[in-house]
From TrEMBL:
Highest taxon, organism lineage: Bacteria
Localization (cell): Endoplasmic reticulum membrane
Transmembrane regions: 20-39, 69-87, 99-117, 129-147, 167-197, 227-247, 259-276, 288-307, 336-356, 365-383, 403-425
Gene Ontology MF term list: dolichyl pyrophosphate Glc2Man9GlcNAc2 alpha-1,2-glucosyltransferase activity
Organism: Teredinibacter turnerae (strain ATCC 39867 / T7901)
Pathway(s) of this molecule: Protein modification; protein glycosylation
Cross-referenced InterPro entries: Alg10
Main location: endoplasmic reticulum
Keywords annotated in UniProt: Endoplasmic reticulum, Glycosyltransferase, Membrane, Transferase, Transmembrane, Transmembrane helix
Protein name, entry field: Membrane protein
Lineage: Bacteria, Pseudomonadati, Pseudomonadota, Gammaproteobacteria, Cellvibrionales
Length: 432
C-alpha cells in the first residue's frame, strides 16, 4: 500500500478554504465595524459641532421642501440635497439620523480610494485605503455633516476615470465635483493636465515648449478634454452670474496669498507620512551630498518661513483653542522656540517629497500635483487641515511603497489617535 503523503497548504489558503473569507472580505468587515463603532461614539454628541449646524440648517430646509440657499453656506448645495434625500427616504430625520445619512454618503470615499489605488499599486490597495480612512483628522468626518469626504470621493473617481481614459464619465464626475465644492475646479484642471501627460506618453513626447505647441498633440489634448471644457465654461458662467466663487459668507473667504497654509500643510503631511519620511532619510542624505546647493535653499527657506508664518484670520485666533489646529498654530507660530523647531519637519517633508518624485514610478504625477496642491490652499486666508485632503490623498496614492513594518506602525498609530480624537470630539473636549 503506497505511503500517504501530507500536502502542506499555506495557512492563508487553509483559512480561505475553511472560512470562505478572503482579504477583501476582512477589509470590508473591519471598515464596517469601524464605521458603526465610530457612529455610535459620535451619537453621544448632543448638538452640532464646528460648521455642522450650518450644513444641518441647509439640509433641514431641503427636508421641509424649502429650496433656498442658507446665507452661510459657501458652496452650491448638492451635498445638502443628497443628504436630505437620503434622510427623507430612510426616515432618519433627527440629528443622528442626518449624521447616519451623511455617513452612508461619505463612506463612498472608501471604494473610491480602493479602486483608484488598484489602478496604480494593485497589491497595496487595501493598505493605502486603510491609511487614508484612519488619518486621525479624517476619520471623524465620516460621522459629522461636512462636505469634505463626499467631495474627495468624486475627485478620486474622476482621477481614476481619467487614468482609464473614460473621459465622458470623468467629465460628469468633474461637474459633480464642482457642484459639491466650487474650488474643485482646480482638480478638474489637474485631470486635464494628467490627460495631457497621457497623450505625451503615447506620442513619446517630452513636455517642452516645442512639443506642447505640436498641432497633433494639441488636437489630441483638446479632444480628450472636450467634456472638461464644458465644465470650465459652466464654471465661468457661474462665477460671472454669482459675482464670485463662494455662494454665501463670501466676506470670510476672499482670495489671498497665504504661505502659512503651505507651512501648515507640510507640517500636517510630515505627521501623516512620518513612517514613510523616516524610510526616506538615507535617500535624503544622498540627495544632500550630491546636490550641496539644496542646503543653501533650505537656509534661505528658513528665513522666508520665519518672517511669513502667521495666522491672522479671525477663525485661526489663539483664543479659539477648542479647535485643535488653532492650538497647534499658536505654538508653532507664536512661540519662538517652537517656530524655529517646526522648520525641521517642514524641510524634512519637502525633501521626502523630492525623493518621492525621483523614486516613484508615478513621479511625474507627483510633480504635476505640486502646482495644483499649492493653488488649492495658498490662496485661502483661513488655515484649515481639511483643505489638504485631496492633496494628501493623491500623495498617499502615488508615493513610493514603504515596508510592511512601517505600514503597520503607521496604521496602528492612526487607529489609536483616531479613537482618541473621536472620543474627545464626541464629548466636546476639543474639535479638529
Amino acid at each position: 500500500m503506497p505511503d500517504i503523503v501530507a500536502v502542506k497548504t499555506p495557512l492563508k489558503s487553509q483559512l480561505s478554504q475553511s472560512s470562505g473569507l478572503n482579504e477583501i472580505h476582512l477589509f470590508g468587515l473591519l471598515l464596517l465595524a469601524a464605521l458603526l463603532l465610530g457612529f455610535d461614539t459620535v451619537s453621544h454628541l448632543k448638538g452640532g459641532i464646528g460648521d455642522e449646524d450650518v450644513h444641518r440648517y441647509q439640509i433641514g430646509w431641503f427636508m421641509q421642501g424649502r429650496f433656498e440657499i442658507f446665507k452661510y453656506v459657501t458652496m452650491l448645495p448638492l451635498y445638502h440635497l443628497i443628504v436630505a434625500a437620503l434622510a427623507k427616504v430612510t426616515g432618519l430625520v433627527s440629528l443622528n439620523g442626518i449624521r447616519f445619512s451623511h455617513m452612508l454618503f461619505a463612506a463612498s470615499v472608501i471604494p473610491a480610494m480602493y479602486f483608484t489605488v488598484k489602478r496604480f499599486f494593485p497589491a497595496e490597495a487595501i493598505a493605502r485605503t486603510l491609511l487614508l480612512v484612519f488619518i486621525p483628522f479624517f476619520f471623524p468626518l465620516f460621522f459629522l455633516t461636512y462636505t469634505d469626504l463626499p467631495s474627495l470621493m468624486v475627485v478620486l473617481f474622476m482621477v481614476e476615470r481619467c487614468w482609464q481614459r473614460h473621459y465622458g464619465v470623468a467629465g460628469l464626475l468633474a461637474l459633480a465635483a464642482v457642484l459639491l465644492r466650487q474650488p474643485n475646479i482646480i482638480w478638474v484642471a489637474f485631470c486635464s493636465c494628467m490627460i495631457a501627460l497621457q497623450v505625451a506618453r503615447e506620442m513619446q513626447l517630452r513636455l517642452i515648449l516645442t512639443n506642447v505647441l505640436n498641432p497633433k498633440f494639441l488636437q489630441q489634448v483638446l479632444w480628450r478634454n472636450r467634456f472638461m471644457v464644458v465644465v470650465y465654461v459652466l464654471f465661468v458662467l457661474f462665477v460671472a452670474v454669482n459675482g464670485g466663487v463662494a455662494v454665501g459668507d463670501a466676506e470670510q473667504h476672499p482670495i489671498s496669498f497665504n504661505l502659512s497654509n503651505l507651512y501648515f500643510f507640510l507640517l500636517v503631511a510630515w505627521a501623516v507620512f512620518l513612517p514613510f519620511n523616516v524610510e526616506q532619510l538615507p535617500q535624503i542624505k544622498l540627495l544632500l551630498v550630491r546636490h550641496w546647493w539644496i542646503a543653501l535653499v533650505l537656509v534661505a527657506g528658513f528665513f522666508v518661513y520665519f518672517y511669513t508664518y502667521g495666522h491672522p484670520h479671525k477663525y485661526n485666533s489663539a483664543t479659539l483653542v477648542f479647535y485643535g489646529h488653532n492650538w497647534f498654530l499658536h505654538y508653532t507660530s507664536d512661540v519662538t522656540l517652537w517656530r524655529v523647531l517646526s522648520y525641521i519637519p517642514i524641510a524634512w517633508m519637502g525633501l521626502s517629497y523630492v525623493v518621492a518624485v525621483r523614486t516613484s514610478v508615478h513621479g511625474d504625477l507627483l510633480l504635476l500635483l505640486v502646482p495644483f496642491a499649492l493653488l488649492s490652499f495658498v490662496p485661502l486666508p483661513l488655515i484649515e487641515q481639511r483643505y489638504y485632503f485631496v492633496a494628501l490623498a493623491l500623495i498617499m496614492l502615488w508615493r513610493p511603497p514603504m515596508s510592511r513594518l512601517s505600514t503597520l506602525i503607521n496604521l496602528a498609530g492612526f487607529l489609536v489617535l483616531s479613537a482618541f480624537i473621536l472620543f474627545n470630539v464626541s464629548r466636546q473636549s476639543f474639535f479638529l
